[in-house]
Design goal:
By secondary structure, the chain is an alpha+beta fold. Helices cover 32% and strands 14% of the residues. The protein contains nine helices and ten strands. A hairpin with a 3-residue loop joins strand 1 and strand 2. Helix 6 runs antiparallel to helix 7, helix 6 runs parallel beside helix 8 and helix 7 packs across helix 9. The radius of gyration is 21 Å and the shape is globular.
Length: 282
Amino acid sequence: MTQPTTIRRDHLHIALQLAAQGLPVLPLRAGKIPFGNCPACRDNACGGRPNMRTPGPCQCPRPCHAWAAATTDPATLTGPAWSSSWKQAAAVAWHPGGFGLTVVDLDHADAVTWARRTLPATRTVPTTRGEHWIYRGVMPSVNAVRDGVDIKSTMVYARWLGPGTGTMTVLPDAVRALIVKKPSPVRPVIAPVPAGGRECRHRTPAYLERGIAMAEQRITAATSGVHATVYRTFLAVLSAHGRCGCLTDTHAARLFAAAQTKGESPRHCADAWSNARTALGM
């Protein structure tokens, strides 16, 4: 596959090539803003939120905004919703998680230097200011995991800048570990030992696992008021388990992942977690 040019008439051709390989793609207008992929949402007429990570509030049969607009269907790519979009398009975007990949977006030279010292080598793509490092595997997407480093995988789109060079390797634990640095870990609190010298019940693996699983289920089952549900669930988990030092970054990451599958952004998750801790005086 050749490196794409910036000539607008080539964007649809590139998108069709990528879609034929299984990569979900969509057109981007200037400013990296996506187009909706149905006629009712053309030019954001339905009131959707094309800059957001989540689909808009329209009543389409399927999500058609932002990352959710990405598709491999040539009929959609060439259909009436995008017939004029490709003429206006400034770039092609793709959904990494939809193809089982993760992009480590390195936004400046210092971030690239850090990656070369820290992460396993993989396929790299030059960007305007840095590089995209592409790994096989999927994980939650989080921005600013460190200075100049974003994780793009599920529920996001990335600008297509070419196939890159090098051999793609499996997503390493070093990348997965980046997202558990946010939110900040719950500060351990030394709990008094109950009478009889037994361990705190919160440290019992089955008790804690059941609590986290129930919290995940509560978030996943929400059909409305997702943001409020996430906050109340975080509040309940921290109230039950947060003062004994039994919660770990892994537990928090599981709850964040459940919230993000319902459309919550990493920032909303972090804010809800922080607000819940503040409400509990933690």
